[in-house]
Design goal:
By secondary structure, the chain is mostly beta strands. The protein contains no helices and 18 strands. The strands form 6 sheets. Strands 4, 6, 7, 9, 10 and 11 form a 6-stranded mixed beta sheet that branches. A 3-stranded antiparallel beta sheet has the order 3-5-8, with no helix packed on it. Strands 12-16-15 form a 3-stranded mixed beta sheet, with no helix packed on it. It is rod-shaped and about 140 Å long.
């Protein structure tokens, strides 16, 4: 901007011309974003500053912390939040202008959503053998674990503890007069012969 001023000598004739060259710097404007915006608990995300007005580099203030000399489009910090967290851009100062211009109302936030991981333990009983849902069969008591991905892509660990019960076979000879009631099944027999009783182990 060029401004020309005229001064009068003795209040009459023009005596001098004064020219001012004025540079008006624009107020810096920018935003912050998280990449990625959704993370699993324990994982990190990058916070990125992008200037839409200003030459830079920039000093920025986010959640009370000052990050100096930031270039537009670059990662200015990496965070590992434990819960959903909002990061607010409170101020921008353009170091590429003289004087340095600042914006204390940039009105930009980045929300990071933290998704949980899950750990599940299942106890179960089986006769003779057990096949796990993810494959693999055991014939003795034991456990196995498998990691699935949740809807948000986070690890979910499932552990199954299995108690294996094995059947046993026993034989007994009984001599009775007239009839015999077998306690194993409660049946009364009046004829001789081989009888079989199957019991279920609880």
């Amino acid at each position: 901007v060029t401004i020309t001023a005229t001064t009068n000598a003795n209040g009459a004739c023009p005596a001098a011309f004064i020219q001012y060259n004025v540079t008006v710097n624009r107020t810096p404007v920018g935003t912050i974003t998280a990449s990625p915006a959704d993370v699993c608990i324990g994982h990190s995300t990058d916070l990125i500053f992008t200037a839409t007005t200003g030459s830079g580099p920039f000093d920025i203030v986010v959640n009370g912390t000052t990050y100096p000399g930031i270039t537009s489009g670059s990662v200015f910090t990496t965070v590992t939040p434990l819960t959903n967290t909002t990061y607010t851009l409170y101020a921008i100062t353009d170091l590429g202008t003289t004087p340095n211009c600042s914006n204390y109302l940039p009105n930009s936030i980045a929300l990071v959503t933290v998704n949980p991981t899950y750990t599940t333990t299942v106890n179960t009983d089986a006769c003779e053998s057990y096949t796990f849902p993810w494959g693999g069969t055991i014939t003795t008591s034991g456990s196995d674990s498998h990691t699935y991905l949740s809807i948000h892509g986070c690890d979910s660990l499932v552990t199954i503890n299995v108690t294996i019960h094995h059947s046993t076979t026993s034989e007994e000879t009984v001599v009775a007069c007239g009839s015999y009631t077998w306690a194993c099944n409660g049946i009364t027999y009046t004829t001789s012969g081989d009888k079989t009783c199957v019991t279920v182990i609880p």
